[in-house]
Design a protein that fits this description.
mainly alpha; 7 helices
Length: about 220
Amino acid sequence: MRSNVQTASNAIVINRTLRNTYQLLSATLLFSGVMAYVAMVTNFPHLGLMTLLGYFGLLFLVTKLRNSAYGILAVFALTGFMGLTLGPIINMYLTAFSNGAELVAMAMTGTAVIFATLSVYALVSQKDFSFMGGFLAAGIMVMFLMGLAAYFFSMPALSLAVSAGFILLMSGLILYQTSAIIHGGETNYIMATVTLYISIYNLFLSLLHILGFAAGDD
């Protein structure tokens, strides 16, 4: 009897975490999109490496406040800031390529399809992807360092390789995080939301970069 009660209690926690995560993720994506639009129409400047400082600073704030109501405000601060940094990048593609709007639309569609497909697969299959944790952590660190090298030394080929690597890693991270929620490994919906948001953000940028190189018209 006690085992059945515990199982039912765990299921309630998992379902609540999953529901809260997707609700907060939807709200933050919408807010981030609004901030990106504001950045576009106001010609907000590209922040370069300041983006990383802002991201890690706000991520630290989210982590510290993840168990309080203020954590939600921190999530919106983080995702709103990331939306602001997205606006100048989208503007750059719109002005640099005659088919820039098409490239942006293709990247958005591709990101949505990848996220939806992987999320549904993880939810329906109920597979445990926790074994990917170490690989993903190491892979993201390597890609991050390679991305910095490509930026500082102006290496386009390496930059493209990093984008391709991030597409694979972010796809794996979506599977990993969704699996962690449905198997009870992640019960904090604030941290789950941030992980999925960053996966989507990096997926979009990586797809846009590759599409710009492969299909961009000057």
